[in-house]
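Re: that chain you flagged

S.,

Sorry for the slow reply, it's been a week of failed gels. I finally had a moment to sit down with the sequence you sent. For the record, here it is as I used it:
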Amino acid sequence: MVVGADKGGVGKTTIARAILDFLSLNDIHTRAFDTETPRGTLHRFHPDETMIVDLTEPSDQMKIIDTLNTSQAKVSVIDVRAGGLSPALGALDEIGFFDAVKGGEFRFVLLHVIGPSIASLEEIAEIAPYVTDANYFMVKNHVNDTTFFEWDPQTHAKYFEHVVTSGEITIPKLSELAYEQVELSGTPFSTFIGNQDAQGRPAEHSFVLRGYVRTWLARVADEFERVGLLDLVGEKRR
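Prediction finished late last night. Pasting the structure tokens below so you have them in one place:
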């Protein structure tokens, strides 16, 4: 499962963090790879399950791809650094990863986090060659009060004529103060909600702010459920 964008500042790591919380809360063993070398933002919040890698380096590619079928983790989440989605997909293409996906050896899910501009939509054409056999989701992230334009039919047809999306995910806005406090805590959203610090000790987070984060994370989980994310990882709970 790859989370990324070629445009920076669209909140892709926030999405990756929410996915890790979502899968963990559904008892799905997940590992993560942070390609923001040398200091990874995702690694800061999820150090136990996250490894910092350079996706363009063969040695790091081996750490991910060569262990997909042997790792105890059911799902591997790759948080691609800002501006690195196209190069990352190109590197995976070069090693034959997408041929393996087409052959059914792996299941590939791409969450493409777009910004509120036409420039962000232009990324779609660039990554189209890599998502033929992917479960491709377009993600609109409103967490920081981003406002997206509405597409008219002609604009939509122009940018989506070469790709078929599995769905559109909308991440709702989270209170700025609540988001800031989670950032300062350096913990997963679920840990902040549980009023614990990064070491798992009792914390003194605001009841009000924990309530905002709890409601937000539940709404995000509803979005992930709606598009069938659990079905894609083969762990849909009955």
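What I noticed first: The radius of gyration is 17 Å.

Talk soon,
D.
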